[in-house]
Amino acid sequence: MTRLEIFGVDGLPEIADGDDIAELVHDAAARQGAPLVDGDVVVVTSKIVSKAEGCAVELDDVDPSAFAVSWGTQWDKDPRVIEVVLRESRRVVRQIGPVLITETRHGFVCANSGVDQSSSGAEGRVLVLPADPDASARRIRTRLAELGVEVAVVVSDTFGRPWREGQTDIAIGVAGIAPLYSYIGQHDPHGHEFRVQELCVVDELAAAAELVKGNTSRVPVAVVRGHAWTPDDAASMAPVIRDSSRDLFR
Amino acid sequence: MTRLEIFGVDGLPEIADGDDIAELVHDAAARQGAPLVDGDVVVVTSKIVSKAEGCAVELDDVDPSAFAVSWGTQWDKDPRVIEVVLRESRRVVRQIGPVLITETRHGFVCANSGVDQSSSGAEGRVLVLPADPDASARRIRTRLAELGVEVAVVVSDTFGRPWREGQTDIAIGVAGIAPLYSYIGQHDPHGHEFRVQELCVVDELAAAAELVKGNTSRVPVAVVRGHAWTPDDAASMAPVIRDSSRDLFR
Question: CA-CA distances (angstroms) from residue A111 to A72, A97, A108, B188?
């Protein structure tokens, strides 16, 4: 039978600008008696990647546009935060009441460009998403390889979605593992050829990892052990980002 | 550390109308040396639930409307299948080119009302989603309790989503486990109160389960072991289905 094991990495310190996440995770996993091994998928919450990469914005340094001031005032939101949300976006997808759904510079569609007011560790500061989450994932994977383990890395975030209440964790950056697994051309047990099905396994890995993380505890990293993946050094999230020409909801 | 184990249930027979899925899963898990235990979450692919509940539609019995004939002919699709898709829907959300995104009678938004042409086991027949997936999940949970184990049950299906390529497994029916976990009112490690975050844990459980299922093998059931849940006999998918008044994409 196919079997996976998923566990959180406990005992990580509060992450600060310049920290080596790979080494911290490597050491914390060993300390809890569950050292990383070849083949693991390491799922890292984007907010600690943002912190390690210095992706905090001091709101006192932000000069909001007239648009941000007007809309923020109307909906009782800090215009400086709105300004950061707009800067982090390349397009506003929906702006209805106090809700702002944007397409980020990376091409992800989410609320408020992924700008996080609650995790920055200080009032007057917000966290933005890593500039290039695939590159972040690659750096962590490369560093872990230097430390002796060949793993895949997924950088995850918590997104809402249309039509369904409740958020789920999804992937925003990958390294080593192809994000999509295609059944196209394969056959089901009845001999029918799959013509369309392609699964976003990295989103499923991110969702699975969230189950052991928990947002109120300080467990921003989880390990999925037992998932079969073929090392792919060129892997990126690009194949997951649907081109707007193929998109019915943008 | 928080730790989950996820494994597929091998050796299930081809499911037919009237089969007792609970008993088959219970016995197959025991046969593979991994009997179900109290607290497990059993994730069952909806297509075997549909088969056990006789949710197959013989296309020869379907009389397509003029609309279905016209649109099916235009896009080279079987008008009888289109007719079944429309019957299973209460609203067409998008109809662009050959793509039909509908809201099902249950309130789920997906391609083709979840009508499945490839898994029916016969040409000239399609499978539709279970009429009441929460009730299906409850029956399986109740029957497993009779067989001696107190488990939660999630009925899953494979859905696409806007903005992102690749499908993922999500929940369409639940029993015993509340679908949403709310952090609202709790505090993060910095003492900030969560004001909005609510996670759809049953979608994350469904996604995690997919990782061990695989659609080309015959593993339509997976077990998630180690997930903490509070038994809730009144649980249903209702809280997940976003009311259209709150929806920006319908």
Answer: 15, 13, 10, 20
Structure tokens belonging to residue B244: 């259209």
Q: Residue A97: CB partners within 8 Å, gap ≥ 6?
A: A75
Write down the residue that tokens 């192809």 correspond to.
Answer: A178
For B216, residues 6+ apart whose C-beta sits below 8 A from its C-beta are A183, A186, A187, A188, A189, A194
A4, A183, A201, A242, best to mutate vs chain B, most B CBs in 10 Å = A4
Complex ipTM value: 0.95
Structure tokens at B86: 């429309």
Residues in chain A within 8 Å Cβ distance of B194: 118, 215-216
Closest residue in chain A to residue B217, using alpha carbons only: A189
Q: Which chain B residues are Cβ-neighbours of A45 within 8 angstroms? A: none
Cα–Cα distance, B210 to A205 (Å, whole number): 10
Q: Which residues of A188-210 are buried (b: 16+ CB within 10 A; e: fewer)?
A: beeeeebeebbbbbbbbbbbbbb
- 3-state SS class at A201: helix
Contacts of B217 in chain A (CB under 8 A): 189
φ and ψ of A87, to 5 deg:
-65, -35
* pLDDT tier, A240 (very low <50, low <70, confident <90, very high otherwise): very high
> By the CB < 8 Å criterion, does A200 face chain B?
yes
**Confidence at A121, pLDDT banded by 50, 70, 90:** low
pLDDT band for position B121 (cuts 50, 70, 90): low
Which ranges of B35-185 does DSSP label H, i.e. alpha helix?
46-52, 66-74, 79-87, 133-146
**Helix ranges (DSSP H) in A88-194:** 133-146
List the structure tokens of A153. Answer: 């890395």
pLDDT at A183 over 70: yes
Tokens representing A97? 């009441």
| pTM assigned to the model | 0.95
